[in-house]
């Protein structure tokens, strides 16, 4: 199996021209702050047909400092930070309660682009979290009502029963509250934009926040 996996990995191609277009990126023309550039790149990924461009990797660490990562959905990005949501008692929620710092990673292979964000995380007011949840789909509310995220489960049948009850309530009570649902905001201290290049001369532009000076831009070796 290991040999088969090795051969499979060697057969794969990165940024196949049939599915990937590597646009030029002039960092000297980048805006003074990272949010406008993120918005521009996100819109370009959507226009290019990138599948689920709003999904991102979220990295946290537990009480001992051991890292963990998973894929979550971006709920918004503005001057207050990049937002995502989860139950306060989930694994990521417990991590953030113990160590309120995280990193995000976006990858849009259709354009050969990555964006990396990291900084401290705070919980938004409960009203914001409930408003965000109830603005989403019935399925999102049903999933939140099912609850018990990251807890040990006895069987798939147990999940089915809980989910069916949650779906029924979500349909009959579209404003049903979920007290544990938490909207988190990551206030970026560092944002890096990576543009892939066919000759491997990748462009990396990093923004670093300095409280006295605002955002500082710098290029990194690929």
From TrEMBL:
<comment type="similarity">
    <text>Belongs to the pyridoxamine 5'-phosphate oxidase family.</text>
</comment>
<keyword id="KW-0560">Oxidoreductase</keyword>
<dbReference type="Pfam" id="PF01243">
    <property type="entry name" value="PNPOx_N"/>
</dbReference>
<feature type="domain" description="Pyridoxine 5'-phosphate oxidase dimerisation C-terminal">
    <location>
        <begin position="181"/>
        <end position="222"/>
    </location>
</feature>
<dbReference type="GO" id="GO:0004733">
    <property type="term" value="F:pyridoxamine phosphate oxidase activity"/>
</dbReference>
<keyword id="KW-0288">FMN</keyword>
<dbReference type="InterPro" id="IPR011576">
    <property type="entry name" value="Pyridox_Oxase_N"/>
</dbReference>
<dbReference type="Pfam" id="PF10590">
    <property type="entry name" value="PNP_phzG_C"/>
</dbReference>
<protein>
    <submittedName>
        <fullName>Pyridoxal 5'-phosphate synthase</fullName>
        <ecNumber>1.4.3.5</ecNumber>
    </submittedName>
</protein>
<dbReference type="InterPro" id="IPR000659">
    <property type="entry name" value="Pyridox_Oxase"/>
</dbReference>
<keyword id="KW-0285">Flavoprotein</keyword>
<feature type="domain" description="Pyridoxamine 5'-phosphate oxidase N-terminal">
    <location>
        <begin position="45"/>
        <end position="157"/>
    </location>
</feature>
<dbReference type="InterPro" id="IPR019576">
    <property type="entry name" value="Pyridoxamine_oxidase_dimer_C"/>
</dbReference>
<dbReference type="InterPro" id="IPR012349">
    <property type="entry name" value="Split_barrel_FMN-bd"/>
</dbReference>
